[in-house]
């Protein structure tokens, strides 16, 4: 229902992707929060900022690093999406399209489906994998006797 067009991409090729259900629910919860900023879903961290909204991922990535001790960059997130997509059995062409990678051949250009809605199940599968993994990680961190099904299958 809510395709999003990204124009300033690395390849300079505009990319339209559907908003997955998890992201939609997260943004809706932020919008419905009574303490939210009246205009921006992601307001600036400081009220004296010249720009009243978040413009880079630097702050959230630094918070992840401080909480985990692991440095995370934007390309780490792209690699994570690819890894999760592979785990979720997303085929090569759809992974390539999801990351807006240029095609390797003219034939690939003809194979691309121009309807962004074809990526919605992929977006949802990737989000589900991440949410499920975070539930397991949270349970393990709390000391619960939990084993990740994915780890069990690989063993």
What attributes does this structure have?
155 residues, mainly alpha, 7 helices
Model description:
- There is one protein chain.
- The chain has 155 residues and is mainly alpha-helical.
- Helix content is 50%, strand content 4%.
- It has seven helices and two strands.
- It has a two-stranded antiparallel ribbon with strand order 1-2.
- The model has no long low-confidence stretch (mean pLDDT 78).
Task: Present the secondary structure layout.
Layout: E1 4-6, E2 15-17, H1 21-32, H2 58-68, H3 74-87, H4 92-98, H5 106-111, H6 120-141, H7 149-154
Antiparallel strand pairs: 1-2
Task: Please give a quick description of this structure.
The chain has 155 residues and is mainly alpha-helical.
Task: Give the amount of beta strand, in percent.
Answer: under 5%
Read across the widest sheet, the strand sequence of neighbours is 1-2
Radius of gyration computed on alpha carbons: 18 Å
Helix content: 40-55%
How large is the count of helical segments? 7
* Average pLDDT reading: 78
Question: How many angstroms separate the termini?
Answer: 40 Å
SSE class: mainly alpha
Low-pLDDT windows of residues: none
Order of helices and strands: EEHHHHHHH
